[in-house]
Amino acid sequence: MPILLIKLTHFIILNLNTNYSFNVKKKRPEEEYEKVSDYFKGDVLNHYATSKNMIRIQQKITDRTLELLNLKSRSVLILDAGCGPGFAGIYLKKMGYNIVALDLIAEFLYFYEINDINPINSDMCFSPFKPNIFDAIISISALQWIYRDINNKVMHFMLVNLFKSFFRILKPNCKVVIQFYPKNKEIMEQIGKIVVEHTDFKGQFIIDNPTNHKKRKIFLLLNKEP
Ligand SMILES: C[S@@+](CC[C@H](N)C(=O)[O-])C[C@H]1O[C@@H](n2cnc3c(N)ncnc32)[C@H](O)[C@@H]1O
């Protein structure tokens, strides 16, 4: 599988990679709905939560996320931020990892067994956890709902909070992996800039299948160095 790595350095954030750019033409739900809860409700929410195809796709992304996390043991605590109905969280729990699953939309958390997983209804930009408790944080297909317009000051504020909060609750020497669907390279550049300016994370973007717009998957890998 072709892979493109883009390190988050001061040089790169200004000019991600002169040879690589993309612009997704097709409108995504987050462009048509201002709030994620306006989109995920009623039939749309139920359809998403019970779709076998979606489970398959999201579990594949979770496998890749695990590969990037490169955890040495399963006796670790992972935060699944923007967990939805638990495709990643439940899958990881079955593998033996300990999971806290957090989502803004309470109805998604009804799909969890409360004894299996720890579902929390909260905004991941304001995570309600004490510092240094997670061994890893994952977020799958959620970040595009938080940040999709580089001129929007509220989105900027939420994103700064998100990264500061992830940095605070993650243990030193541990990683965050965020898979998401940015519209273009400029959004990624801006995200990289915010990470570098507001946290001490070291990291990089990883783009699987960069030239195939159907198969392209974009990950942000962040490391909290001790
Ligand atoms: C496309 S779904 C993905 C759900 C799940 N991660 C998966 O892989 O199927 C996006 C999820 O992000 C959640 N989300 C969006 N913004 C959020 C925020 N600020 N805090 C917590 N969850 C959020 C939504 O409620 C929704 O469940």
Describe, in plain words, how this protein is organized in 3D.
By secondary structure, this protein is an alpha/beta fold. It has a single domain, classed as Vaccinia Virus protein VP39 (Rossmann fold). 39% of the residues lie in helices and 23% in strands. It has an 8-stranded mixed β-sheet, sandwiched between helices. Strand 3, helix 7 and strand 4 form a beta-alpha-beta unit. Helix 5 packs across helix 6 and helix 9 packs across helix 10. It is globular, with a radius of gyration of 17 Å. 37% of the residues are buried. About 3% of the residues have low confidence. S-adenosylmethionine binds next to helix 6 and helix 8.
What's the arrangement of secondary structure elements?
Layout: E1 3-7, H1 10-14, H2 29-32, H3 36-39, H4 42-50, H5 52-69, E2 77-81, H6 87-95, E3 98-103, H7 106-109, E4 118-121, E5 134-140, H8 143-146, H9 153-169, E6 170-180, H10 185-198, E7 202-208, E8 217-224
Parallel strand pairs: 2-3, 2-5, 3-4, 5-6
Antiparallel strand pairs: 1-7, 6-8, 7-8
The structure holds S-adenosylmethionine.
S-adenosylmethionine is lined by residues 36, 40, 58, 82-84, 87-88, 103-105, 108, 123-125, 140-142, 145-146.
Query: Termini distance?
Result: 32 Å
* Helical percentage: 25-40%
Bound ligands, named by name, code or SMILES: S-adenosylmethionine
Count all strands and give the number.
8
Output the CATH topology: Rossmann fold
Question: How would you sum up the global shape?
Answer: globular
Which sequence of strands runs across the widest sheet? 1-7-8-6-5-2-3-4
CATH homologous superfamily assignment: Vaccinia Virus protein VP39
Overall SS class: alpha/beta
Mean pLDDT equals 91
How many structural units, i.e. domains? 1
Which range does the strand content fall in? 15-25%
CATH architecture: 3-Layer(aba) Sandwich
Please trace the helix and strand order, writing H or E for each element.
EHHHHHEHEHEEHHEHEE
